[in-house]
Amino acid sequence: MNRLTDKIAFVTGGSRGIGASIVRRLATEGADVAFTYTHSAPQAEALVAELASTGRRALAIRADSGNTAAIRAAVAETVAQFGRIDVLVNNAGLFITGTVDDAAADLAAFDRQLAVNVAGVAATVRAAVPFIGEGGRIISIGSTGGSRAPFPGIADYVATKAAVAAYTRGWARDLGSKGITVNVIQPGNIDTDMNPATSDFAPAQAAGTALGRYGRVEEIAATVAFLASAEASYITGATINVDGGQSA
Ligand code: NDP
Predict the structure, then answer these.
(1) CA distances (Å), 94 to each of 30, 106, 141, 186, 212, in order?
(2) How many angstroms does the Cα of residue 177 sit away from the middle of ligand 1?
(3) Which of 27, 28, 72, 94 registers the highest number of CB atoms within 10 A of its CB?
(4) CA 68 to centroid of ligand 1, rounded, Å
(5) CATH code: domain of residue 76
(6) Confidence at 1, pLDDT banded by 50, 70, 90
(7) Could you give the angle at the alpha carbon of 196 between the alpha carbons of 194 and 197, nearest 5°?
């Protein structure tokens, strides 16, 4: 499908996993895509080359979502190259576990998770909004953990994703008068480096879904593409679970 012809997309954390699939899908739909990454430069460069070979413009920017100045610079570089942003996808995120009663918990890791998953999303939206016009889209990748905590050790992570869902509702109200929609996709278990379908932990996770399996990155990207398109023009402030029925 070509639902995003000549749109400009900006995706955080696009070098691997769900983010890379989103970048590919938005480009397949006709968008030019800028994306950020932190460590995976070879994957980022390969993805830029892949998109360029299809005729789409692509830009990979090293920018840590935990660093507000880096986020602002990445948005500025995107606007300098492409002129505006039509679709913002907040995808970059960390998953750091630990129970609240663990005296040896790594509090710096907790702070880092908050900085990337919450402050980074808010900073990206603040930086990008001046360049998003009527018909624009803001789509964040939350987690079903934003609505439920099915096992111990994930309180900090699920709290960050609940914050993203709450921000989504607030931003939908803030930006509705400008014709910008704001939604959050809550993935369930998706096979990536963060949550491999081959881990010891995976069978129990798959068994907890109605469909009895992990999700694929393309299944999240397809939902992003739909929300980014004109077909989703009356959806805003919504939380959309893409989880194989994990939440059913
Ligand atoms: P991966 O760890 O597989 O990939 C993460 C991507 O984000 C990489 O491209 C990575 O780039 C980038 N990234 C990580 N930290 C930063 C940062 N500080 N600044 C910029 N980019 C960064 O994760 P997934 O693809 O699995 O997850 C993507 C999103 O989906 C996350 O928000 C996650 O919380 C959410 N999610 C994932 C689920 C799953 O089961 N996989 C379930 C529910 C939600 P680099 O390699 O360069 O560091």
Answers:
(1) 29, 14, 12, 15, 25
(2) 31
(3) 27
(4) 18
(5) 3.40.50.720
(6) confident
(7) 150
